Every structure is written in C-alpha cells, then in structure tokens.
Amino acid sequence: MRYSKFLIPTLREDPAEAEVASHRLMLRAGMIRKLAAGIYSTLPLGERVIKKTAQIVREEMNRAGALEVTLPFVQPAELWQESGRWNVYGKEMLRLKDRNDREFCLGPTHEEVITNLVKGVISSYKQLPVNLYQIHTKFRDEIRPRFGVMRAREFIMKDAYSFDTDEEGAEKSYRHMYDAYCRIFERLGLKFRAVEADTGPIGGNFSHEFMVLADTGEDVIVACSNCDYAANMEKAEIKPPDDPEKNNIDLKKTERVETPNIKTVDEVTAFLRVSPSKLIKTLVFSCDDGHIVALVRGDHEINEVKLRNFIGCDNVLLADEDLVEELTHAPRGFAGPVGLKDVKIIADFGLKGGTNFVSGGNEKDIHIMNVNFDRDFSVTRFGDIRCAGDGDPCPRCGQVLETKRGIEVGHIFKLGTKYSRSMNATYLDPGGEPNHMVMGCYGIGIGRTAAAAIEQSHDENGIIFPESIAPFSVLVLPVDTTEKIQMEIAEKIYRELTAGGIDVLLDDRDERPGIKFKDADMIGVPLRLTVGRNAVKGNNVDIKSRKTGEIRQVPVEDAVSAVVESLGESS
RNA sequence: CGGGGCGUAGCGCAGUCUGGCAGCGCACCUGGUUUGGGACCAGGGGGUCGGAGGUUCAAAUCCUCUCGCCCCGACCA
User: Fold this and answer.
1) Distance from residue A146 (CA) to nucleotide B72 (C1'), in Å?
2) Gap from A80 CA to B28 C1', Å
3) CB contact at 8 A, A520 and A507
4) What is the ipTM of this complex?
5) Both A265 and A219 in a single domain?
6) Nucleotide nearest to A157 (CA to C1')
C-alpha cells in the first residue's frame, strides 16, 4: 500500500475526549472516529487491525471445529418473549418498532436467535455436538460508554454457541473452547490470565473470563502468587481461617461512647484512636425474603456477589436509609450487631477469633467499645463474604493472593439447558426420546481486544503493535521522495516485499522526514525501513524495530531478506 | 439516574465574569526557500459561536428552556 493512496488522518494533538492510552492513540493514529457516544467509525488503518484480530479468532475457532454463521442483528420481540428475557433485559437492550408497529430489538447477544435456529435444523443426537459462531455487530445501550472502543455501545464480537446431548459433552465443548481461547490470546501476543468468574443468575458450574493484564483495566482480578488459582473480584474466595482457640481471658467490659456525627470507618478510627481492623462494619441488606445484616471488619470490603451466593438469594441490595433506621433505630453510620432482634446476622470469617471490637451503638451519635462475639451478640453464620485483597490466603494452596487489574476480552459460559428449555430446543436420543440440548456460549470482544493490545503495548510516541495484528508489517520510508535514487531503491524493496506476501506500507508522501518518522511511530508498524542518503552514498538502509528502538544498517541488496528474517523472529 | 465539567473552523484552545469587528496555534489551499525526528516566508479559504426562545439599539457573552459530549458514582448477559 502506498501512503499517498491510503487514508491515515493522524492527529498532532491529544483529543480532549480521550482519557486512556488506547482510546487516545486509536484516535491519534487515525484508526477510529467517533460518531456519537459509544459509536465509532473504523477507518482504513483501524479496519486492518480489526480484520487481522478477527482473522486469528476465526482461524482458531475453525480449527476447534466451530462453524461460522451470520445471525440477524435486528431481532423480533417474540423470540425474547419466548425465552422470557424481553422483560428481564433492561434498558441496555435498544428496542424499536417497524412500520407495522411490530417490536424488535438490536441484538445485544444471540442466544435466542441461535437456539431458535438450531431447534429448526437439528433433531437427532447424530447431528450433535455442534458449535456455531459469528463475528458480528452487537448493540448494548450501556449506561456509561467510555474509553473509546473499550466499552462502546456498538461493537464487534465473536460469539459462539455449543450444543451437546448431555452435561459431559457440554463440559468437553467448554474445555475445548477454553483451550482455543488460550491459543487465540497467545497468538495475539497478549499477556493474559483466565480467571474463574461468577456465573450470575445463569448458574452452572463454571465460567471463565479472559483478562488482558493492564493497569488501566476496569476489572480487578485476584491471583495466587504460588499456584494457578485466579478469579475475578466477584468470585475470588479466601481460605477460611483455622478455628481459633477459645479464650475469654481478656474480654473487656463494654463501654458506650459518644461519637457526635462520627460515622465512617475513617472518622471512627481517628476519633477513638483504634485501628480499622478493630472495627465491625455493620451493613444492612434487603434480599428476597426481607433483610439481613452482614458484618465485616473495618478494613475489609463486603462482596455482595459472594454474600448473595452464601445466603442463596437471587437479589441482595444495600438497604436504603429508611430500612436502616427502621431496623437499628439510628441514622446510617451507627448500626451495630448488639441488640439487633429478629434478623439474621452473617459475619465474615475474618472477624472470627477477634475480641474487643468497636461497633455502632444503634443509637444516634453512639458507638460501643469492647464488643465481643457470643457474650454481646450472636451470629447466625460465619462465612466468606468479603472481597479478597492483597495478602489474603489462597483458597487452594494457602499462599498469598495478589490483585491485578485487567481488561475482560473474553468470557466463556456453560449455559446448561436454560435456553433449550424455555425455547424447547430438543433432539431425539437413540431411544427416540426427546431431550433438551445442553448449551454453552463463548464471547470475545474484537475491538476491545485490539484496544487491550494497545493498552498493553505503547509508549509516548504511539502504538507498538504486536506483529500479529499490526496493520502493516513493514513501513518503507524514503526520506526524500524528490531524490530519484532513493525512490527507486524504496520502490524496488516495496515491490519485492509485497511480492513476498508481506503487508508493506510505502511512505511516498512528499513530507519532511520528521513528520514521516512521527507518523511511523504513532501508527505502530513493527519494522521501519528507512531509505535515505545512506542508501545512495553507502548502499545501506536502516531497519528499525518499533518495539526495541534498535536500528540495524543493512546493505540494500540484503534489505528484503533481513526484513523477512526479522518478522520471522518476532512471530 | 445523582454529582461535576464542557460545547466557539477538521484538531487543540482564548474570548463569556464586565454585552460593542469572531480570534490564536496546528491542520488545509497557492507560490517560494527547505528536507535523517512534527521547517520558514508570503498570500489564501474555512464559523448558523450546539439548538430554540427571551432581554437589549446591540448577544458567543445576560436570562429561560433544550440537545449533545466528557469525567466520577450507582448499574451491568
């Protein structure tokens, strides 16, 4: 490709709207332009990156035996009413009506469509298992789109759906996809980690998220420093502490203290001069059947998902001011376990064995010191209900857990028979009996993956693309296009590399060298081959690695083979 | 949805408080000098100042309403 015939509208300055690196750089490199909040056009350079990313995903899906299809983007309401999700899926689903007033939505996901399709074309166990996928546009009306294509409303996703005859087959399909995903992210050259995820209301035994590690990631993951346990924050477990020895020796007498308008953990610890770990945080939640009270140490954070799973409720919501007051007879900030009646109290096991805590007094401007379990109040159950943090013990091996930030680029789910039941997708088994198909679903955000790659690999001069998804493998840069000899050498190298099947960009613009070098850095092409006066006088060209900055001088006649060799090394 | 901020040329911004010619830098076009890390000189084009209504002799500027965008939070198969 010739630069002069291509379109790369780079920006000299940072756009005001972009905060994170990938968003800023994708705009500056001329890959994307915004049309509306969370809605982007992809320009030629961005298109090449997206296509390459998608192609790797496609190749690995095909290799894993999945079959590519294209499913409709506009979907009729009836389908969603059949699965029961029309009323469940909230405002994230963009709904619209056609000219006859029939209701439709823009597909935020495709379980309904695929289940409907498979139901119609598969009727026998002999046709199973099957795994169908597409690489296609999704629309989710996100509450807050941000970070460019990282969290966009309209985006490209690879979504695959597996159908098996039984649980065992479904697990096999799941593991197969897990392996395929690992290959995909390895080929893309990303540092990633597969983490266990909460399955949410769908249920089932497993779900994994594939997280690209990046400090700017929106998600926190918890990983063991010793074994391979890794989970997202919602799911991450903590090893239960050993049962402590009973000792009632140093239980001090409780003491009511006045704490005027002192509410938060920070305020209380400062006011009473105690460490946050000596505080009991008392949180009231409303759940399916009424309300419950959860206790965690002052220096710990409650994990609502873990709490929800622990008590076995579908919904758990932090109570509003009114409920807190009704239950504790005190404004928010003074709740405590002592004296609470007719309510289940769930305590995090991090509190186990501790003594002489400080808690709210269930009275305005009052806290109680030297509060102790059993003596002053009783707990319904202890459990693992707090967020794991740095230093907590690993649930598998007991070693230290660490937190890292990541970008969720892939998610795999075992769906079970949720959709095949609600939409009645069955096959006939060898005995002629109808059975529900067992499903799995597997997503990868294509644009987000490309953005994550940039997030993970850039510097102050621009993007540093991994070879696998770089828009071009080499940039041939004649310094002065008005110099005949330089141009002839550049053109010849360009022709030969192109003939060798390499994606080459020839910067044939009559621009000053500084501009051409800056643009080369910005768009992140892995190798830059500079043809300048050295080529004319000394018969040498410079080959520069975008990643390392290393420059090699190579005789003109060896330039093509040197490039081919370098590309081979990095892949 | 709550809180904060911003809408002025393709991009980045000043001008708004205190009403009085719509500006600056970059980008773009023409000519010239330049050419190994974002050149210089000269000339030029480009704006319903987000929109509607109001106040005023006069509105980018003041008032009312409205739309959009960004950030923080809540939410999220």
Assistant:
1) 12
2) 51
3) yes
4) 0.93
5) no
6) B77
Q: Is the CB of A531 under 7 A from strand B?
A: yes
Q: How many distinct structural domains can be found in chain A?
A: 3
pLDDT tens track for A193-252: 999 988 765 556 689 999 999 888 888 899 999 998 999 888 899 999 887 766 666 888
CA distance A57 to A51: 10
| A340: in domain | yes
d(CA A473, CA A543): 12
H/E run at residue A134: strand A130-139
pTM: 0.91
Q: Which ranges of A354-507 does DSSP label H, i.e. alpha helix?
A: 418-422, 446-456, 484-499
Strand B, CB < 7 A, residues 304-343 of A? 318
| Per-position DSSP letters for A241-253, written without gaps between them | PPPPPP--TTPPP
Q: Which structure tokens are listed for A8?
A: 């790369």
**Tokens for A350?**
């991090």
Reported as a single tens digit per residue, the pLDDT across A37-67 is 899 999 999 999 999 999 999 999 999 999 9
Q: Which helix (H) or strand (E) holds A545?
A: strand A540-545
Strand order across the A540-545 sheet: A504-506, A474-478, A527-531, A540-545, A551-555
Residue-level length of chain A:
571
List residues bridging with A32 in a β-sheet.
Answer: A42
Identify whether the C-beta of residue A444 lies closer than 8 Å to the C-beta of residue A183: no
Note down the domain range covering A172: 15-237+403-455
Pair (A421, A351) in one structural domain: no
Q: Flag residues 31-50 of A with CB < 7 Å from strand B.
A: 34, 36-38
CA A35 → C1' B56, Å? 38
A461 touches strand B (CB under 7 A): yes
Q: Which residue is nearest to nucleotide B12 (CA to C1')?
A: A13
Q: Do A173 and A310 sit in the same domain of this protein? A: no
Looking at residues A305-329, what average pLDDT do you find?
82
CB A154 within 8 A of CB A138: yes
> Do both A287 and A353 map to the same domain?
yes
Q: Nucleic chain B: which protein residues 402-441 of A have CB below 7 A from it?
A: 411, 413, 441
CB distance A28 to A11 below 8 Å: yes
Picking from A499, A498, A453, A456, the residue whose alpha carbon sits closest to that of residue A476 is A498
β-pairing, A130-139 with A154-164? antiparallel
Q: Is A514's CB less than 7 Å from nucleic acid strand B? A: yes
Distance in angstroms: CA A515, C1' B35: 11
Which helix (H) or strand (E) element contains residue A117?
A: helix A111-121
Tell me the CATH number at A370: 3.90.960.10
Chain B positions with a protein C-beta closer than 7 Å: 1, 11-13, 25-27, 34-39, 68-77
CATH number of residue A442's parent domain: 3.30.930.10
